[in-house]
Design goal:
This protein is mainly alpha-helical. It is built from four helices and two strands, in the order αααββα. It has one domain. It has a two-stranded antiparallel sheet with strand order 1-2. A hairpin with a 2-residue loop joins strand 1 and strand 2.
Length: 116
């Protein structure tokens, strides 16, 4: 059950959103109504070589992976929140995840990387 959950997290949060960002950078038409942040971001992206665009996407992907891992660490209890005495707990189908989600997620990423 937890294995399916961490794989789904990766597929939804990392893989789908990475494709969304790539599509935004590559297909957004900048107009006078485009937000200044996006104008700068798209201009920066367009100034990169193909190899550097790939590097940027890998940086974004790794940031998503690290953020997801950190969030799972908070839920698992292996990481704490500053100034928060609450102890979150995630149940999957009413079953305790036993503090293993961050480890399972990182194992999934390691397996994915070793198979590429």
């Amino acid at each position: 059950m937890s294995d399916i959950f961490v794989k789904s997290l990766y597929e939804t949060i990392v893989k789908e959103n990475l494709q969304l960002y790539k599509n935004l950078y590559e297909t957004t038409n900048v107009t006078s109504k485009t937000d200044d942040y996006w104008k700068k971001a798209i201009g920066f992206y367009n100034s990169l070589t193909g190899e550097n665009k790939d590097t940027l996407m890998r940086i974004i992907e790794q940031t998503m992976i690290d953020t997801t891992s950190n969030m799972l660490g908070v839920i698992d209890g292996s990481s704490t929140l500053n100034d928060c005495s609450l102890e979150p707990k995630l149940l999957l189908d009413s079953k305790d995840t036993e503090g293993e989600l961050q480890d399972l997620f990182l194992e999934f990423i390691e397996d994915r990387d070793s198979n590429n």
